[in-house]
Amino acid sequence: MTGTVYLVGAGPGDPGLLTLKGKMLLELAEVVIYDALVSPPILAMINPQAERVFVGKYRGWHSLPQAQITELLVTKAREYQTVVRLKAGDPFIFGRGGEEEAGLQEAGIAVQVVPGISAGLAVGFPLTHRQVSSSVVLVTGHEAVEKSEASVNWAALAQGADTLVIYMGMHRLAQITAALMRGGRAGETPVCVVQWGTWPQERRLFGTLATIHDLVTQAGFTAPAMVVVGEVVRLQRL
To answer: Which domains are delineated in the chain?
Structure first.
């Protein structure tokens, strides 16, 4: 009899933001397959008898290719009854949880999803606000390399949403901000970069579309970081 794989969102880092169900599953797990950006306090909640397997990824380096991670999940589900796939943030928001779910279902493995708070929802800004933001878009700054062409239309987004929350955008920040300005977004639009959001070492850097790339370079801000674009950023500074 095969087990069940639980795709568990670990949230943005603060252990207090992990769901109760996520914590329960970590305590019951027989094996936990976890990502790079899961915080140490959350890893400390794992059943001490559970097998742990690190499958983290950083830009330019993957401990395992995605296809092999899915194969590993299938293998472990045939060995154990309770398999936790622990993913930073939410499994279904730029977490490749959909790919893993599809692979598990194709292999006949039972899978359940436990949502987590995505990093983009934990940046500390009111992403919507009746006075300044009636729409918000969560968008990746790093599309799959195997795509034949990019699908993010930055020019359209420049005019299409009041607030933009950009994941994995630090490496291409100069290109992204330039594309937004070419699309008609004002250079003085406020921007905040939130590095290590909700972790003890969280840092914030404020600027505008026209200045944020230079400010990031000068301050030495690197990933992991979220980029928030829009008038809601001004609310944090009042």
So the answer is: 4-117 (3.40.1010.10), 120-236 (3.30.950.10)
